[in-house]
Amino acid sequence: MFESVAFAMGTPQAGGAAPSGGDMLMQFVPLILMFAIFWFLLIRPQQKRAKAHKQMLAELKRGDHVMTSSGLIGRIMEISEEEVVIECGDAKLRMSRGAIGGLVGKSAEKAEVKAEEKK
């Protein structure tokens, strides 16, 4: 009974020798390929969006029409390094500069033209 189990297990590679360097490299190729796919499809585009958002926040100025990340649209009345006062209809809202989601209207078009000129 035990002889058949031992026979089914097979013999070690090349008389018990360790796998060669080429075999080990071939085991890591799928992992390297998966990392490359994740890099180009997920990580890199996210970094580009974050960089563009950071640049947009740095270039904000008084009078720009913006949309907050919560969807409110208004015009910047006051701006400091950390806070922004936005006029939304009759209300004035004070919020964090990071809460600005993007530019809207003519401000957005001007920003796109500037970005294209820089390229």
TrEMBL record:
<comment type="similarity">
    <text>Belongs to the YajC family.</text>
</comment>
<dbReference type="GO" id="GO:0015031">
    <property type="term" value="P:protein transport"/>
</dbReference>
<keyword id="KW-0653">Protein transport</keyword>
<keyword id="KW-1003">Cell membrane</keyword>
<keyword id="KW-0812">Transmembrane</keyword>
<keyword id="KW-0813">Transport</keyword>
<keyword id="KW-1133">Transmembrane helix</keyword>
<dbReference type="GO" id="GO:0005886">
    <property type="term" value="C:plasma membrane"/>
</dbReference>
<dbReference type="InterPro" id="IPR003849">
    <property type="entry name" value="Preprotein_translocase_YajC"/>
</dbReference>
<dbReference type="Pfam" id="PF02699">
    <property type="entry name" value="YajC"/>
</dbReference>
<protein>
    <recommendedName>
        <fullName>Sec translocon accessory complex subunit YajC</fullName>
    </recommendedName>
</protein>
<feature type="transmembrane region" description="Helical">
    <location>
        <begin position="24"/>
        <end position="43"/>
    </location>
</feature>
<keyword id="KW-0811">Translocation</keyword>
<keyword id="KW-0472">Membrane</keyword>
